[in-house]
Amino acid sequence: MTAPSVSLGLDYKPLEPPLLDEPFPFYARLRQEAPVTFAPHFHLWLVSRYADVMTVLKDPRRFSSRDILRPPVDLPADLLQLLEASGYTPDYPLLGDDPPAHTRIRGLVGKAFNMASVNALEARIRTAARTHVDALLRGATRADLVSGLAWSLPMDVITELLGVPREDGARIRQWIEDEKLFFVPHLPPDGLRRAVEGVAAFRRYLRAMVEDRQQHPREDFLSTLIAARLEGERPLSTLELSNLLNVLVFAGNETSTNLISTALLCLLRHPGLWQELRANPAAVPNTLEEVLRFDSPVVGMMRTVTEPTQLGGVELPAGARLLLLFASANRDESVFEQAARFDIRRANANRHLGFGHGTHYCVGAPLARLEARVVLELLIERLPNPRLVAGESVPYLPNLIHRGPQRLMVEWDTAPTA
């Protein structure tokens, strides 16, 4: 076993250019020179090779998910008080627990959120997507496909699924943005306060929603989740339900939005692929797997070392915090030939880690895939010749975990097909 060099770790600055916009050359250096290395700016160990990431994901005993989304800074007393008064806890069910607690939560969610229930949504999702696409194309020849489609459709779907009033979608989206900023290190004090206020408001909103459904059940996912039971297991408490609802709303929106926008960007940056999909729409599902591999909406996820151990030949102390770089593992040449090439016909694209792996595989993955597939199928049918608008930037939000274009300006011919 060897002690790691921290020279590359010192260069890990993903919240600013050039890594914010194009991190993949840096990931390649990590895999080659320092596959497990310490990044002192974030107090994290970066794990960049596919095999090492898989080792961690398969071993929850040595590599715990507890405190997976622990806030990166110590908050002032007044902000802590604000969070505590809202009922906030740093618990993120499904993400931040280990077996057997995770097994219980996952089993209860699975009772209400399974493949059959997701597949049953396709007609409703397709109707909603067609409405958004119609509005986008009506009288226009250019638009931001993030705000006009990739953001709005997943929000409509997740709010309808959970029984959230559609008119609350805009403020929920703002609360999601606040929660993302809550986990950005070195946020200015005024920005941190706004983020904390948003997180607290969201927790109050979700708790009130849970308490309402407990008293007045409806025909929605949340009511089904409240009623879910597993033999020998206690039902979910109000706090567990509100924390779980936060995870489902956040993940159900953010991951789908970033998958849709990244898929559109990948296709439009590679001439000829749009026409290829128009000629063969059956290739859309594998195209989405390749998008998830090539530019993952989830950059990575945290784990905590529970005992002194070694990984990739590097000694790690108990308590060490790891950042498993899924986005780097998905470009590992030992698994994916010509990994830097975007290839919608790649035979093993589905080996990606874009939704994690194993015990903590993303429970919302089927929904995200379905939403993205429906959007792509509609757009390739309706838009014969879309193009990125020349000179328009594609900005990314500074974030350690999530990645996706925040704006995607696209233009098309004046007569889109009906």
Automatic annotation (TrEMBL):
PANTHER family: CYTOCHROME P450 YJIB-RELATED, P450, PUTATIVE (EUROFUNG)-RELATED
Protein name: Putative cytochrome P450 hydroxylase
Keyword list, A-Z: Heme, Iron, Metal-binding, Monooxygenase, Oxidoreductase
Family stated for the protein in its record: Belongs to the cytochrome P450 family.
Pfam families per record: p450
Key word Repeat present: no
KW Heme (keyword) present: yes
Annotated SUPFAM superfamilies: Cytochrome P450 (SSF48264)
The organism's place on the tree of life at top rank: Bacteria
Listed GO MF terms: heme binding; iron ion binding; monooxygenase activity; oxidoreductase activity, acting on paired donors, with incorporation or reduction of molecular oxygen
InterPro entries in alphabetical order: Cyt_P450 (IPR001128), Cyt_P450_B (IPR002397), Cyt_P450_CS (IPR017972), Cyt_P450_sf (IPR036396)
